[in-house]
Each structure stands twice: as structure tokens, then as C-alpha cells.
Amino acid sequence: MYIHAMKLKHLLLALSLSAATLATAQIPTVPTTRILAMGHLTPGNTRATVAPVLKDEVPATLRLYLDGKIDQWYFRKDGDGVVFIMNCTTVEEARTILEKLPLGQHKMMEFDLIPLGPLAPLQMLLQNQPTQTPTKN
Predict the structure, then answer these.
(1) Which residue of 36, 37, 60, 94 could cross-link 84, Cys pair, CB 3.0 to 4.6 Å?
(2) 89 in a domain, yes or no?
(3) Quick check: 31 and 117 in contact, CB under 8 A?
(4) Residue 18 belongs to what domain range?
């Protein structure tokens, strides 16, 4: 229990670094592991105008989920579209996939794409720690 409390203390310390400290610290680069895709209807479209296309959009989106390209999907509570967390490592890959969906082909929905990666400041917790390799069971 004490070890977990100490790790939590260090985690909170790493996350609470001041803006000045972060500005001068060398934050390690991290790989892009996911893409946050925030979809919104294009100007001039409403739920009513996209409704006929949804009969094709929903199965196509489900296929992307079952193929592992979409990890999580959400409906925007503001009613303007969807949010996906995609298993892609580049914005270009995510854009290509999303533009092939029916709403994308009809130019009825666009996506803001944000690359995501591991929380870089957490690596500061590993400073001066020996590198360990996982053991096989």
C-alpha cells in the first residue's frame, strides 16, 4: 500500500508541474498511438438532411469498429456529430478512412483530427530507474 501511495504522490507531482517548469523542461517526444476525431456536420446540413444517408453510414461505421480502426465512439451531446477515438498513428490515415464513410463522401460531415500519445510528463517518473524488460510467464 505504501508503494502505491508513493507512486501516486510522484504521479501527482509530475502532473502538477508549473507552466514555467514545463516550458524549460525537456519533455520527451512520444509516439502517436490514437487519433481523436471530432465530427461535425458541414454548413447547411442538419439531422434531417443527413438522415437518409445514415442507413449506409451506421453499418460502415460499425465495420470500422469491428475491423479495429475505431476504438471508441460517442455521440456529441450538442447534437452536431460524433467523436471517435481511432486506432491510427497518423492524421492522414484517419482522414482517409473517415472520408470514405458515406457522410464523408457526400461532404455532409467533417472531422477535426488530433493526434494522441502517452502522457509525456509521466516519463519523468522513470528518471534514474533501471530499464526492465518484461518476463515471459
Answers:
(1) 37
(2) yes
(3) yes
(4) 2-28
